[in-house]
Write a structure and sequence with these properties.
The chain is α+β, with helices and mostly antiparallel strands and 194 residues long. It has helices at 93-104, 144-153, 161-174, 180-190, and strands at 24-28, 42-59, 70-88, 110-118, 124-131, 155-156, 159-160. 24% of the residues lie in helices and 32% in strands.
């Protein structure tokens, strides 16, 4: 089995061509909302239909190990996801795309796509990083109990997996997003002591 945390894991990289001289919108559904790591010209609440926020990526490094994997966030098919659309000024787009590819595409577990977002000012098109169900690191086929078991056991270089989930829920609540699926998952994780 390939080590999914290895940047050399085989995966086709999807090219993303953005017209030069134009602003770029990026859909943020997790830590990019409160820790983008790049200059944001504008941030607006947005709804993405057809995808939902889910712990669907095995973590063998940051929130787990190969022997005791954890799980981290991705966008999985179905449902809807509330998040933020982040506008990147045209002059910053090349640098921001380089940064995002280093941050989100190191293990090739995400597929970058252009998606249509609903906002209060009307629809916009944005770049989103969706989970690749064909990747070895994808664990979206697990039921909630299986995902909870991963989160309960996972500890890696960035700390305990349960702390990641708790922090995510807290950050989402601070910006007015209540994700019932994540709250149910945390309740299930907490039912059993590690």
């Amino acid at each position: 089995m390939n080590n999914p945390d290895s940047p050399s894991a085989p995966k086709v990289i999807v090219d993303f061509d953005h017209p030069p001289g134009q602003d770029l919108w990026v859909f943020a559904y997790g830590s990019l909302m409160w820790n983008p790591g790049f200059p944001v010209a504008q941030s607006v609440s947005a709804l993405l239909r057809g995808w939902h926020r889910r712990f669907c990526i095995y973590s063998h490094m940051h929130r787990g190990t190969p022997e005791r994997p954890g799980a981290v966030l991705g966008l999985a098919h179905g449902g809807a996801c509330r998040g933020h659309a982040l506008r990147v000024a045209a002059a910053d787009v090349p640098t921001v795309l380089d940064y995002l590819w280093q941050r989100e595409m190191a293990y090739r577990v995400y597929i970058p796509r252009l998606v249509r977002l609903a906002t209060a000012d009307g629809p916009i098109q944005a770049l989103a990083f969706t989970a690749d169900p064909a990747h070895d690191q994808y664990c979206g086929g697990l039921d909630m109990a299986g995902t909870a078991a991963l989160i309960r056991q996972g500890t890696g270089q960035s700390g305990r997996n349960i702390d990641y989930l708790t922090s995510l829920i807290d950050h989402l609540a601070e910006i007015g997003i209540h994700d019932r699926g994540l709250e149910q998952l945390l309740a299930l994780v907490n039912q059993t002591t590690p």
